[in-house]
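Write out this protein's structure.
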Amino acid sequence: MRHPFPPPPERSAALRLRFAEEARCEKPDLSALCLLVGAVADGTLDEAGMDAAQMELDRLAGQLPFRPGGPAAWARALRSVLGERCGFGGSPADYQWLGSSLLHEVLRRRRGLPILLSVVWMEVARRAGAPVYGVALPGHFVVGFGPQDEQVLADPFDGGRLLSGADAELLVVGATGARLTPSMLTPADPLEVVGRVLNNVRAWASARPERSDVALWAVELALLLPAHPARLRYERAQILVQRGDFVAGAAEMEVYADLVDVVDASLAEKVRGQATAARARLN
């Protein structure tokens, strides 16, 4: 299966600008952000393709029953339409393909990672008027319906299976070894979801040094989010050096060193030494 390659630089720059603008909106649009990630990743995804993906979400929402009932009824309706009728779901093999983190490909193949399948569930349900939101369980993203005291969880990766409290506990323990806490069940905002999508992309690329292009665009998009860890700058610097751009990588290391100098002078000194070493590789 072919992994996608980014578009030409001019197109990529325009998409990144749109991504940054959308991320800074008062109410960021989750599907638009995920499709912009897809377009930065895949040069074959043009404006018509992004529009078609939005229309597919609309079409799927139109298959849901009108106001089926409370949170459990909404969860069952989504499972019936998306999981059973349309066949959306995932398997361990989906973790090996970059397209499993790209919304347009997940809509096409109806396969993907838990968080992208959850994006499909959320965006379809939201269009139909459901009280839906993402729940960022450690290691496994799911969707929630209804207020906290009536919350119903569903796992889109498992075809929309409804989760009991014990099921959610097992997911968390299996992923992290930690116990489930109430704070883990709070709704995730759109930017948190997109940040986690980009984390998955960076993890995929880190295991494939030949795809440092993917690692670079993923970290650069993450840096465009309004809130991001300062260490992303250091990660970007390392990728630039890996790709042979020693001058830009060294400059980014120095920016990161200046940021951390106040809280960790020894780390700053170490990073500045790495910047000097990167520049020396030009000789």
